[in-house]
Amino acid sequence: MKGLLNEIDRLLKEKRYFEVKNIVTQENAADLALLFEELFGEDFDEQKEFMILFRLLPKDIAADTFAHMNSDMRQHLIGMFTDKELREILDESFIDDTVDLIEDLPANVVSRILKNSTTGERKAINEILRYPKDSAGSIMTIEYVSLHKDMTVSEAFEKIRKVGVNKETIYTCYVTENRKLIGVITVKDLFMADEDDKISDIMETHIISVDTHEDKEIVGNMFQKYDFLALPVVDKDKRLVGIVTFDDAMDVIQDENTEDFSKLAAIAPNEDSYFRTGIFKHAKSRIVWLLILMISATVTQIITNKYEAAFAAVPLLVSFMPMIMDTGGNCGAQSSTLIIRGIALDEIRFSDFFKVVFKEFRISIMVCSVLAVVNGIRVYLMYDHNFLLALTIALSIIATVILSKMIGAMLPMLAKRVHLDPAIMATPLITTIVDCCSLFLYFNIAMMIFKI
Fold first, then answer.
1. 106-110: long-range contacts (C-beta < 8 A, 24 or more apart)?
2. Which portions of the chain are predicted below pLDDT 50?
3. CATH classification number, 146-245, choose in 3.40.1010.10, 3.10.580.10, 3.10.20.580, 3.90.1720.10
């Protein structure tokens, strides 16, 4: 990529545009969008070569490249387009890509896009935009091939050839009757059938579909589960209103994973990339959870102050506090991470609550046994064969590991039960809760053993 960037940059500066055009027409649209970003960075507003390079692209490649660009770059291009150029880009773009574009742009730019769209396109765009942001309806496209059950295979191929060029996918076709979805058929099925066969005889009537208001994360999970290329979207009357294609489902999965990773790190989710997010916005997305966790950590301070007598009697107890807390936090984080991921993949449900808790309990017994023995022996050998101290540490680790793994397993499932995102019960929050509990157990065990 670096060699290509340097070559295109050199040719543009030398005004050898014919050679540039020959190069870029051989590249993939996604790679071209990345090339634009690498070549011009965030300074494209001041570089005339930016618009020249884009205008060198053939119409179909330009539209695909435009769809892969970030919102700032697309907004700049729209500002530079003539109405004719904008109309050409919109004509070559799929409706769902246009909807995605509209959602990211300011109102004045949106008005210009709608102005240069046809009446049918405006109607389709508005229809998709009225669905909730995180629903299947918001990510679907209305550009699909519909067939009638009484068509023959040859008639179906004739229709596909006629309308397929303007559809987002032709590999899966949908059989409708009075707009109701009654069957699904693939191009492979059509190829394998005789030309005179009726669609009704070869179509698949066991249809998996989603409602327009279904959560888009569930839609993404269905693509993972069933390996679909496209998924039909129906309304409450089972009328086909659109389809979700594989590329849009992949975007949803990526967005949801990014959101979960942010929540796992106690950061408010942000739709922009790291470098395209300002410093103030970064700080704002982090500071709220940091404040909550910092204030909640005062509970740990209160517990520590309460057991000052234990410190005075056995000063060595203080030096083991970080180890006990870290062990508990790590154990809780391990369990919560696995449970959160299991919930996200629909592998773990609330009905599995006791099954999961019992499994984590058995795991914790095995883990704490090893940790307690190793640390008990270590403390006994390093601290003048102090058996009571070694016993305190060993028992504290056993209690801490079991409790932390129970907390790490239960909290995400309970959060899901009350319709909260399980990802909020992630490492920072689990660690804070476990720190308080582990200190409480540690000091009480120490006071019983040392009879303080």
1. 106/75, 109/75, 109/78, 109/79
2. 46
3. 3.10.580.10
